[in-house]
What does this fold into?
Amino acid sequence: MRKFLIAAMLLSLMLVIAACGGGTADTTTDSEPEVVEKEVTVVVTGASGEQEVVTETIVVTATTDPAQAAEDEAAMAEANKVTMNINHGTEPPSLDPSIATDTTSVNIITNTFVGLTRFNQEADVEPWAATDWTVSEDGRTYTFKLRDDLSWVYRNPSTGEIEEVRPLTAADFEYGIKRTLNPETASDYAYVLYAIDGAEAYNTADPAAEDFADVEAAVGVTAVDDTTLDVTFVDPIGYGPAIMGMWITYAQPAETIEEWGEGWTEAGRIVTSGAYTLELWNHNAELDLIKNPMYFEADDVQIERIKGAMITEESTAMSLYESGGLDITGAPSADLDRIRADETLNQELNIAPTTCTYYYGFINNKPPTDNATVRKALSAAIDRTSLIDNVTKGGQLPAHSFAPPGIFGNVADDMSVGGWMVMDNYADQLAQAQAWMEEAGYPGGEGLDLLIMHNTSEGHAAIAQAVQAMWLEAFPAANITIENQEWGVYLETISPDSPVEEKPNVYRLGWCADYPDQNNWVNDVFNSASGNNSAVYSNPDYDALVEAAAIEQDQDKRVEMYKEAETLLVDTDAAIAPIYYYTTVQMRKPYMTNVIVAPAGGNPWYQYTMDWDAKKEATGQ
It folds into this structure.
C-alpha cells in the first residue's frame, strides 16, 4: 500500500484540469473530451517502511461543462498560490506551545502563533505582538504594551475559508504562560519560567490542595487590560524580554483548549494567531500550512502555502529535491562530495554557522557511564576533526564546550576548558583516553558494555557508527552496540523521568539557542531540575552556580561564572561529550530569494520569499 507524503500528484492534477477546462471556444456537452497524460513526482513508502522517489504518469479527462469550468478556474487560483515545499523530516511530537520541546514542533509553532517578542538576524530581541515594553525601577517588572490588531483565526475544513474567531488580548498571554506552568499541563519546559515570581511554587503545587487557586493567582503575570501585560520576575534579570520570545510564553486560545483537550491542535480544530494556520495534518506523512490573511503582517508574507513532507531519510529527501519536489532540504553528508563536484548543485549549497551544538550525552546514573572517569575517557576518544572531515563534511567546528560561539558567556575560544577533547595531535588525545579508561577499571575496555542510541536518521547513524569505531579502536575489548528509534519514541526513552533500565548509556542530541544567553544552555538544560536534563546530571555546586549566574547583575562576573559552570559540566564531571558546533548545511533552489536561519527559536518561514514565476517555470507548472 502506498502512502503519499506530498501532494504533488494532486497539485499537478488541478493544474492539468484547469489548463484544459478554462477555455471558452466550445461549452457543448456532446464534444469529445480531451485526454491528457501528466508525469508527477511523488514519495512513496513501501511495506518495509523504506521511502523512495518515483515518477508516475496520470491520465486526466478534461471537461467542457460550464459548471465544471468554474470549478476548474477556482482550482487554478488555488493551485497558483505561492507555495514552498519543505521537508519537516519527521512527525512533530506536538504543536502545543506549552508541550513542545523539539525543533520540528517549534518551527511550526513559530509560524502559527505569536509571541510578545522575537529575535532578529543579529540575535537582538525585537517587538512582535508587543509594541514596546518598560521596566520598573527595581528591574523586576516588565510592562508589555500589545498591538490592538491581533486576532485568533480558524480554518473551516468544510469551506477552506479562514475565519476570525475573536481579538487576541493580553489575557491570552497570561493564560498561555500560566497554562505552561500549571502542573497538570506537565510541560517539560515549565522550569525555564521559574524566573517569574511565583512560577516555581505554582508549577510544583498540588492541584488538589485547597489553596491551589491562590497559588496560581500569585504568579507574577497579569493582564492589566486588553493591551497591557505585566510580568514580574523574582529578581532583576536583563534577559526577561528574551524569555518572553520563547514559544512556551505564546498566547494560547483557552476556549479551544478547554473544548478539545489534548486534541486541540488537530486540523479542523486548532485556532491560531500567527502568519499561517494549519491546513492539513496527515500524521506521519504530511503537514501543510496556509497563510493567515488576518495576520497583522500579512502584507509582508509572500509565501501563501507551505507543503511539508515528513521524509526521515536524508537521501530520499535529496532525491526529491533534485527532481523538483522540494525547494529547500538539508544536504546529506554522504552527498556533499558529489554536490560540491556538481556545477549546478554546488551553486545551490549553502553553509553558514548557527548557534547549535551537537553532543553525545551520557546517562549519569546508569553503569558504566555513572563513572565520570569513564565519561572523560569516552569523550577524549572521539576524534572530532576526523569526524567532521570524513563524515559530516559540512564545515562544522570541533566542540569542547556546550555553548557555541555567538552565545553570551560562551567559552568556545577558551581551550582551558575541555581542551583535551580537541588536541592538535589525536594520538596524544587517544593515549589520554586509554589512560583514563584504565584508571576507571576497564583496561582496554575489558568489561565495558555500552549502548549508543540515536533517533532515526542516516546522518545520525553515520556519526554513531564512526564514534563506535573510534571507541572500539581505543578500547578493543569493549562491547559497544547501536540502536535507533523514531523521534517521538526516542524523546520519551531519553526523558529524565523515563525508567533508567530502558535508557541507553549514550544518546545523541543537539541544542539550539532559544535565546542567546548561557542561561539557556547551562541552566535551562543541565540544571538537575530541568526537564531537558536527559543525562540526569546532578551536582549541587553546579546548580547553585548557574542559578546565581542567572540573576547576577555584573555581566563580567556572569561570564566568569559561566566559564566555571562549563568546566564542571564538560570537563570535571564530563556529563556530556560536545562533538561539534553546527553549521546550517542546506540545499536551496535558485528561485528561493530569502531564507532566514533563525539565531534563536524556530525558523521564521513567514519571512522567506521566492521568485514564484521562476519556480513555476523550473517545475513545469
Observations:
- Confidence is low (pLDDT under 50) at residues 1-31.
- Residues 133 and 144 are 4 Å apart (CA to CA).
- The first strand starts at residue 35 and ends at 45.
